[in-house]
Amino acid sequence: MEDWIWTTLVRALAFGTPILLAGLGEIYAERSGVVNLGVEGMMAVGALAAFAVAQSSGHPYLGLAAAAAVGALIALPFAFASITLRANQYVAGLALTMLGLGLSGLLGKPYEGAPLAHPLPEAGFVAAALLLAAGLWFFLRHTFGGLVLKSAGENPETVDAMGINVYAVRYGAVVFGGAMAGLAGAFLSLAYRPSWADGITSGLGWIAVALAIFAAWHPLKAVGAALLFGALYHLSYRLQAVVSPEFLKAMPYLFVVVVLSLSALRRGPSGAPEALGIPYVRGERR
Amino acid sequence: MRKGFLALLVVLLGALGFAQGDKLKACWIYVGPVGDYGWSHAHDQGRIAAEKALPWLETQYVESVPEAQAEAYIDRLVKQGCEVIFATSFGYMDSVLAAAKKHPDVIFAHATGFKRAPNVATYMADFYQLYYLNGLMAGALTKSGKVGYVGAFPIPELKRHISAFALGVRAVRPDAEVLVRWIYEWYNPAAAKEATEALIAEGADVFAFTEDTPTVIQVAAKKGLPSFGHYSPMKRFAPDQVVSGQLVHWEKIYIDFLAKVYAGVYTNKNLQDVDYWWLLPQGAVELGGEFGEPINPKFVPALKAKKVDHPVFGKISVYDLVMKELALMSDVELAFDPFQGPIEDRQGKLRVPAGLRLTKHELETMEWAAPGVVGPWPNEPK
To answer: How many domains in chain B?
Structure first.
């Protein structure tokens, strides 16, 4: 029994890490008022950048930096379209996912099947992700910067009235989200696998988007949620001997639907940022 | 003189024209990326080898073709002048038949399928013999008596392979179990990894799998546990842990088929009964984790040290047993077959009566599980 709890916890932490990293980024983006459905795509290019740089330079940490930079970079056109041009955020995000998956698949061809000489340990990523969650919670809860970020998502007019540029805040949050998704990808290609393959993200980006909602946009709750997803995913293979595998495979996703329905039924505010998904237009009343 | 010159010119032009018409264009459709290091990669290696071996052959391929869109891709290939089209996924079956009707002049060959037409042949290089041999080695190497198997989909092909594997495991270690976990995807490294981790947590200490990446090998190798490669030479991903595996030589089938098309033996009218079911004797499959090396030398001492009491060979080491049965199964006489009766399924029902073997049709439609297989088994006959 003890062994069961221990192995489940270890696997939950490992599998939950990419979801947590990308989910934290998405929480920040959404807290600033921007829904970015491009997480899957940003994760994929991050994974490729990390692997390509780590493999050619021999320094895995350089790969890590490259993943964050490339993730942030590919989030920029999305930010431009959805914040500056005020395009539909959902459509722009889906486009980003397709762009990221396609681009990484195309550019990743030479790296398919190549081994990585110096992989990173999973445990390092796990610890870093947990620390990041705590740090991001602190920033959001206890600093002026965090207050501005939250206000940009709740009531952007106030932020504007304070003389702070709402667009800049949202750009920053989206780009930060991209960097985090890139790091999540780096975890996959540098530690979890560690190798590159087309489609390496296999839907994890979408779970990260669900995680942001499920955790009620709270960085610390996101840790618990990521652990829960990780545990469910692990158990879906562990319990195959006793429960139908088809059901187990659907379980994590079924769980998302159930929890989202429950939180929608709950009275009072859902915890979603008031201005989530609404492009900000300066000087216009909502 | 002038007449002679003209005649020469005619001959030369004719030869030129013949030389141009002489080329045969064959095209391949892959379900995955050619870099997947599994199924599609192996087919593409076969294509490259065929192109090298046949100077008159011109090839082209499209990768990652979704099964539902195969027909549109086939139409495009026909427009581009493909005379022979190889469709390399089971799911292309109905699209291939529909396309074959639409393009009666084009010759089609469909891998793993069972529906044929005057211009559609089927072909398969099957691994069940190799799985049995891998099973023998796995049975010798497991300490816990639990062998892990990560499977893609519970379909007859995998059930046949896993059962052959389990029969091999039990032939060496009668109390061993083969723990099976399904991931319901041909290609999903993350799922393969978590399934392997789950099997490790259950106590499995030797691994085999059906998934299109070396993930299972990599995860097992991290814990120092031995495993068997699948489809491609995967030993390079864990040179100290990959014991053996299954390798394919699709080019054997491709070269044979294309040469017969070229020679006019196969036409768009006579393929109704052309069905390749190639195994060890035809050289379409090979035992090993690396070409030319049936067993990783690092594991040879352990396999030689493990002795079993064999009903035919008497006391024999697992290494010798593998080599002997490999030789028997590589011979056209096929003096040995893994599915040689009497064999009961895991529920105790007699599936292969004594003295009989499973027919090709029975192998292709196999749903029962051999004794020792532990885990869910959808569509298991009662």
So the answer is: 2
